[in-house]
Amino acid sequence: MRIHRFFTEEKIPQAGEFFVTNENLLNQWRNVLRMEEGSKAILFDGSGDEVLCEVVLLNKKSSTLKVLERKKGLVPSRDVTLYIALIKKDNFELVLEKATELGVSQIIPVQADRSEKKGVNYERANKILREASEQSGRATVPTLGEIMPIEKISGEMLVVFDPRSNVSAREFFAKETKSPIGLLIGPEGGFTDEEMEFFKQNGVPIVTTGSTILRAETAAIVALFLALV
């Protein structure tokens, strides 16, 4: 019988019993999966471990679980932040899901000159990140940062993806092993000439995935694949 995986914001102890009070989890366990006393589930709290647990008590308001086994879970092989210009809602949500599956550590939406939208539904976005982490088997959940302008990006090595470059992204990542690293993906329509000049003046590497023009969401997935896989 399949054992389901769930993320919980409650800290899971090393041993013994603990409580889960998240209403959405409790509803899913009781009314969707029909879990009951004695049922088992794998839980993770973002620490990098995953924990096999047994349900001791389950009701509408809380669940008591007992730790049966704790082991190291799957964590990203490299600390990668995806900076992605704001794009259409459905496409942005696709990026959230696939970036999580590929192993991104952090996602930060960026306000570029040609960005198509102005905001992010953080409640829905974080739900997508949690569910993608549960589904993909990883033991951490990526963090989602606040929207920032391009000129405020700092803190790690940054690589810009743009089809106007003559530097192969594949060759670049075959040589580049620094971590943490940030990947910057532009909006539909690409970066403006002024933004490209800003990157060049600040010595930011600009690479390309090939001669074809990729949609922003496709470029993000390809960039993460090259950096992480």
List keywords for this structure.
229 residues; alpha/beta; Ribosomal Protein L25, Chain P; Alpha/beta knot; five-stranded mixed sheet; 6 helices
Shape: elongated
Strand content: 25-35%
- The count of strands amounts to 12
Distance between the termini: 31 Å
Instruction: Give the C-level CATH assignment of the largest domain.
Output: Alpha Beta
Structural class: alpha/beta
Mean pLDDT over the full residue set: 92
Number of domains: 2
Q: What is the helix/strand order?
A: EEHEEEEHEHEEEHEHEH
Uncertain runs are none
CATH architecture of the largest domain: 3-Layer(aba) Sandwich
Looking at CATH, which topology of the largest domain would you report?
A: Alpha/beta knot
Main sheet summary: 7 strands, parallel
Q: Name the CATH superfamily classification of the largest domain.
A: SPOUT methyltransferase, trefoil knot domain
Total count of helical runs of at least 4 residues: 6
Radius of gyration: 20 Å
Helix content range: 25-40%
